[in-house]
Design goal:
By secondary structure, this protein is α+β, with helices and mostly antiparallel strands. It has helices at about 10-35, 60-65, 70-95, 145-210, 215-250, 275-285, 285-310, 370-440, 445-480, and strands at about 55-60, 100-110, 110-115, 120-125, 125-140, 260, 310-320, 325-330, 335-345, 360-365. The protein is about 60% helix and about 15% strand.
Length: about 475
């Protein structure tokens, strides 16, 4: 925020006093350190130019936002999204056909023997085996592949919500650190004005004391006021350094020598709290976590119910035999998996059978009639679903409470902005009054400088209130799950 221009004769005197004091303190040291001028006959030596101080650049809030993608917390969350995406792609691939090859072989050496009638017999060596291919497919909705797919989808949704939350959190941290740096810069400027005024007041008090027109405690009070102003300047500088380091840590970069300027004034309006609550009850990462826990518990319960109600039934159909090979297909009801296989004989075994084929079919299964352990497990799974549903309700209530409490804080922050605006108007009127009194001869230039300082402090407080309100609105939006 631009401060009112100062009158030259009011600012020049304190500055001249400060420079005179600095030169008086450093004069003897400079005189001792400065060598005598060389004789005229001595050739001048070429000296390297003195190093120039590094120029500072203005670092804006928009530049900080542009570097948010490289923040450490955002990078970690983005990597989690990539891992979840790869797991989902793997789960989708598992839904397709799974093809595998198989085979076996055996060798029986030759041998000699005697038949029952006493004649000698010889058995030739044989090499045989089978080679085949098999495929499997998760056909029914409750197959293991389908369950893995649903779990991967939930994990990806949570990872994305976590990434968005990390981005919003990093943006808020950067905003707060930048605003702290802006306010610290304003405090440095105000502390410089205050120190100049206090130095002038100290000089006046010393002059009055020397003339016998002031009490001794007046000089001590003026000295204490000047020391307080110098302490405030040191504290503002420390706050500025801390804010810059915090900003660098949040962004994961080094900024170097930069200055911070107040951001453009944002529109400060309260959003609809009902819309924020509805968004928070569905979009917050902790709510999505509770939803995923409930969905996983429901999947476990559905699996337990199928195990308790469905028989472990397998139906198989096959055709073939002999040299033509055998083709078989089977469906497992409980696992929801369809599989098929084809095998052919190899080696000597391929010539030992006929080339004809035949159809075969089989049906096998089992059903648990009584199992206390299975019943207890089913009851435990039902309790887990109930507990997960309660956790989801609690999570939704918590986010709603968070949104409503931050909405109240935003209301109070906007009210504080209006109060600070009124205080700025009062300070402006006080400055105009002081200037009029100086022209009328009833006040001194120090009174005008004091009024200018009051106005600068009021403007700083207004800027602080606006930045605080802007921060609370960002916190409110983050509590609702961010923009949609």
């Amino acid at each position: 925020m631009t401060l009112p221009p100062a009158h030259p004769f009011r600012r020049g005197l304190p500055l001249a006093l400060a420079l005179s004091a600095a030169l008086a303190l450093s004069g003897p040291a400079l005189a001792q350190a400065t060598p005598a001028a060389p004789p005229a006959t001595t050739p001048a030596t070429t000296q390297a130019p003195a190093p120039q101080p590094t120029a500072t650049q203005t670092y804006t809030l928009e530049q900080a936002y542009a570097q948010l993608a490289g923040a450490p917390s955002v990078t970690r969350a983005a990597l989690s999204v990539q891992v979840a995406q790869q797991n989902l792609e793997a789960a989708r691939s598992a839904l397709g056909l799974t093809v595998s090859v198989n085979g076996n072989t055996s060798y029986v050496g030759s041998g000699a023997g005697t038949a029952s009638d006493g004649t000698a017999t010889t058995t030739a060596a044989s090499l045989g085996g089978n080679a085949g291919v098999s495929v499997s497919l998760g056909l029914l909705p409750w197959s293991n592949n389908q369950s893995s797919l649903r779990a991967s989808e939930r994990s990806l949704a949570l990872a994305r919500a976590t990434l968005q939350e990390a981005q919003r959190s990093a943006r808020l941290n950067v905003t707060q650190a930048y605003f702290d740096a802006v306010l610290a810069t304003q405090d440095l400027q105000i502390s410089a004005q205050t120190a100049a005024l206090r130095a002038r007041q100290l000089q006046v008090a010393q002059a009055q004391d020397a003339a016998g027109n002031a009490a001794p405690e007046a000089v001590l009070s003026a000295q204490a006021a000047l020391q307080a102003a110098q302490s405030a300047a040191a504290q503002a500088q420390g706050t500025l350094d801390t804010a810059q380091r915090t900003l660098e840590s949040a962004l994961g970069v080094s900024l170097g020598r930069v200055t911070f300027s107040p951001p453009a004034q944002a529109t400060l309006t309260l959003p609809d709290v009902s819309a924020l609550v509805a968004r928070a009850r569905t979009g917050r990462a902790d709510v999505i976590t509770a939803q995923n826990t409930l969905a996983a518990a429901q999947d476990t319960l559905d699996t337990a119910v199928r195990d308790a109600t469905l028989p472990d039934l397998t139906a198989s159909v096959g055709y073939g035999g002999g040299n033509a090979g055998t083709l078989s297909t089977s469906l497992n009801l409980k696992q929801g998996t369809l599989s098929s296989a084809y095998s052919v004989p190899v080696g000597s075994s391929s010539t030992s059978g006929s080339s004809g084929g035949r159809l075969t079919a089989s049906l096998s299964g089992s059903y648990v009639v009584y199992s206390p352990a299975q019943k207890a497990s089913l009851s435990a799974d039902q309790a887990s679903v109930t507990q997960a549903a309660l956790s989801l309700t609690v999570a939704q209530q918590n986010v709603e409470l968070d949104v409503r409490s931050r909405f109240i804080a935003a209301q109070q922050a906007l009210t504080a902005v209006q109060t600070r605006q009124t205080q700025v108007q009062v300070a402006q009127q006080q400055l105009a009054t002081a200037q009029a009194r100086v022209q009328a001869g009833t006040a001194t230039p120090d009174d005008v400088q004091s009024a200018e300082l009051t106005l600068a402090q009021a403007q700083r407080d207004l800027l602080s209130a606006r930045l605080s309100a802007q921060t609370t609105l960002i916190q409110l939006d983050n509590a609702a799950g961010g923009p949609q």
